[in-house]
Amino acid sequence: QSALTQPASVSGSPGQSITISCTGTSSDVGSYNLVSWYQQHPGKAPKLMIYEVSKRPSGVSNRFSGSKSGNTASLTISGLQAEDEADYYCCSYAGTSTYVVFGGGTKLTVL
Amino acid sequence: QVQLQESGPGLVKPSETLSLTCTVSGGSVIIDSYYWSWIRQPPGKGLEWIGYIYYSGTTNYNPSLKSRVTISVDTSKNQFSLKLSSVTAADTAVYYCTRDRNSGDYMDVWGKGTTVTVSS
Questions:
Q1: What's the pLDDT tens digit per position in B47-94?
Q2: CA-CA distance, A7 to B46, in Å (whole number)?
Q3: Terminal Cα-to-Cα distance of chain B (whole angstroms)
Q4: For residue A110, what pLDDT is reported?
């Protein structure tokens, strides 16, 4: 069982928007603005898409955005494209001992 | 840009020690504010942080694996390494090395990953 809770799957049609939630606790998501999101295509390594809750690395499309409220972080993908179909993982800092915890991953299907 | 490459045996026998090395190219392991981690992903499952090392040698390990994990760094070779002892089938996974910004902020560079199977 993962430390952060994500829906197992979400889906949307091309052009639509979807949101993936990531629920933690007051010991991780709720305490730090250090939530990151990773995209993983089959057989590939994860790729950083969002860091520090809502910041985008250089080269990541502005269709990807992040937010946080209380113990829940969210990733929104607007204008869905076929290439967005992948697994998405959230991650949060959880203190010096635990360091980071991940969500169980969400499979995004573009219909 | 910085690239990471994992290397090591793809098959390890139960009870033995898994050993992997991550070679850093396009940059140096000696860099302030960046940590070097190992993360694994069992088949069909999610990601699990194993531990990290700073170039100074400071380490931190996942409490659930701490008794079996050792991470070291060789600055002369621009590499860092993972040793996981007393492995079982549950340690079968794809192992990634990563570069972490600050301590626990985000992983901005990932290796391609290497599959390690624990089997006799």
A1: 999 999 999 999 999 999 999 999 999 999 999 999 999 999 999 999
A2: 13
A3: 39
A4: 96
The DSSP secondary structure of A70-99, one letter per residue, reads TTEEEEEE-S--GGG-EEEEEEEE--TTT-
Q: What is the DSSP letter of A51?
A: B
Tokens of B90: 């549950």
| B49 to A8, A68, B27, B64: CA distances (angstroms) | 20, 22, 23, 10
Other CB atoms within 10 A of residue B69 CB: 18
Q: Is the pLDDT confidence value at A1 over 70?
A: no
For tokens 């933690």, the residue is A24
Q: How far is A90 from chain B (nearest CA, A)?
A: 10
Best residue in A35, A75, A92, A99 for a mutation probing chain B (most B CBs within 10 Å): A99
Distance from the Cα of A8 to chain B's closest Cα (Å) equals: 11
pLDDT digits (tens, 9 = 90+) for A45-81: 999 999 999 999 999 999 999 999 999 999 999 999 9
Q: Is B5 on the interface with A (CB under 8 A)?
A: no
What are the structure tokens assigned to B77, written together? 């070779």
Q: What DSSP designation does B45 have? A: S
Q: To which residue do tokens 């990773």 refer?
A: A38
**Are the CB atoms for A40 and A106 separated by under 8 Å?**
no
Write b or e for each residue in B36-49: b if 16 or more Cβ atoms lie within 10 A of its Cβ, otherwise e. Answer: bbbbbbeeeebbbb
Distance CA A36, CA A52 (A): 6
